Amino acid sequence: MKHLLKLGDLSREEILSILNLADQLKYERKNGICNEYLKGKKLGMIFQKSSTRTRVSFEVGMYELGGYALFLSNRDLQIGRGEPVEDTARVLSRYLDGIMIRTFEQKEVEDLAKYGTIPVINGLTDYCHPCQVLADLMTIRERKGSFKGLKMTFVGDGNNMANSLMVGAIKTGMKFAIACPKGYEPDAELIKWAKANGEFEMTADVAAAAKDADVLYTDVWASMGQEEEKAKREKAFAGFQINASIMKAANKDAMILHCLPAHRGEEITADVFEAHADEIFDEAENRLHAQKAVMCKVMR
Ligand code: CP
Ligand code: NVA
To answer: Which pTM was predicted?
Structure first.
């Protein structure tokens, strides 16, 4: 595995191998075992959007693996003043052992990988969020034991999270259902792929999508970069919420995941969020372990 640009590039076996290593790294950390698998390696972290979890978990993860992480904001880099990505890629390849990038266009991530000579890890684009979904899959397997026979339901925007979740769910053998308003569906190519490769259902009826779900997932109605659409989206997404009544349609022991940050009272009610906080914050913790595994896979 050379890069992590999107989940669709990975085979089921590669995904499971990352999850196995993530479990091992979590065990080692909890038991005070320190293995500096990336001793002396340097990771550049380019952020064109805000971040709490991704930034801190990559930086701490790199430190724990014996390496060093540099935070590179687009406000400070020449990339923010128009230096082409193909030049940035070639320059950074001379200094670093890997790049993590959070940006808008997926093409920018693909171009970094194309023009550079070092591994590139996608830390979120408008198209997908593969690191988040690896942590989500890790959390599901940790709590449910396996993926076999599980149904995952996503409620809300067919955005970067939905795009990666449907790929992750189908590749690991889960059923995937999405409830989204008309006009806010996931990527059309991915829908085609999901239908051809697994059990995929799309509806505007939240209760129907949530029926018999084992894992319910939601995300903000307006993602980073969509702030100006906030009012329009509040109207379009009214009712696309995980709440106590929707939980009645799901399986009794259904878990809830949320990539965070969460907007209580919009995509999820405060009571349901708090009732499932252990799952959601385990999920946030697992970002650290899953990304350490990804870095080991591509940078070792
Ligand atoms: N879930 C997630 O990626 O969080 P941050 O935006 O805080 O990194
Ligand atoms: N869909 C959200 C995910 C944040 C982790 C966004 O892109 O802002």
So the answer is: 0.98
